[in-house]
Amino acid sequence: MEQQGNLISVDLPSRNLVYSVEAGSIKIRTLRGKDEKLISEITLDNFEKKFLTVFQNIVTGIDPTELTVGDRLFILVWEAINSYNKEYPIQYLCSSCLNNVRAIVDLSKLELVQLPEEFKEPYPMKLSNNETVMLRLLRVKDEIAIADYERSNKESWLFKYAMTIVDEQKNIIEKMKYLEDLPAGDLARIRSFEQEYAHGPKMEQTCTCPRCGAKEDVACPFRLEMLFPYGKELKRYFRN
After folding, report:
1. Hey, which residues does 112 pair with through a beta bridge?
2. b vs e for 162-184, b when ≥16 Cβ sit within 10 Å of the residue's Cβ?
């Protein structure tokens, strides 16, 4: 799709270790009106595919479906910071005094987790019977497939983890059956792979309660309002 505006080279949290592209070749640009129009049309049913269309507009140097989930989150937060505002309001319940706190999160100060430099795919995971299963990180294309699978009223629990198995001899149904027959401990090891190598912005920040002074790490999950301000959030832009 047509690229508009200045393209900026970005250092992704994956360090490009899982892509067959040169470092510095992946570039992105800030959002434009046509991108916001697409975002305004997002629903629960079309979330993954509509966001993919946005990424096809703003990302160059790689097929956006090949991006890891962590790199996609990094780009989403980058867009929120650079297209709109690095400050984002949240609310949380103080665990010390139970006060309902309004706070401002600085998205530019979120901790960034990177893949370790020695990481390689496929990753060998040794199971309890000494068998080794080869795994890979989830990609955007996998998230789209999972969403489609769920829309067909099928349970995606094993489907999701079957997507991470690298085995050209097995189709997705055979991979799911393989996981079904594994001891629960071995399945947990496979499930832990995505968590162990999670990368991208850590969506939490330390906040201080104005009433009791207690500090705690507060979750700041990605929300659509970060890329499409409306309502009370939109009012902040009137005097900016």
Report:
1. 201
2. bbbbeeeeeeeeebbebbeebee
**Cβ–Cβ < 8 Å for 160, 186:** no
* Cβ burial 41-80 (10 Å sphere, 16+ → b, else e): ebeeeeebebbbbbbbbbbebbebbebbbbbbbbbbbbbb
Task: Say which residue the tokens 């990424």 belong to.
Answer: 55
Among 227, 218, 225, 222, smallest CA distance to 200 is for: 222
CA-closest candidate to residue 69, choices 154, 174, 160: 160
How does pLDDT run across 8-42, given as a tens digit for each residue? Answer: 999 999 999 999 998 789 999 999 999 999 999 99
pLDDT at position 142 over 60? yes
As a whole-number percent, the residues of the chain with pLDDT over 90 amount to: 81
The closest alpha carbon to 81, from 61, 63, 107, belongs to 107
Q: Which sign, positive or negative, has the C-alpha torsion 185, 186, 189, 193? A: negative
Tell me which residue has tokens 């962590």.
70
Residue 160 · residue 170 · CB < 8 Å: no
Residue from 162, 137, 159 nearest 148 by CA: 159
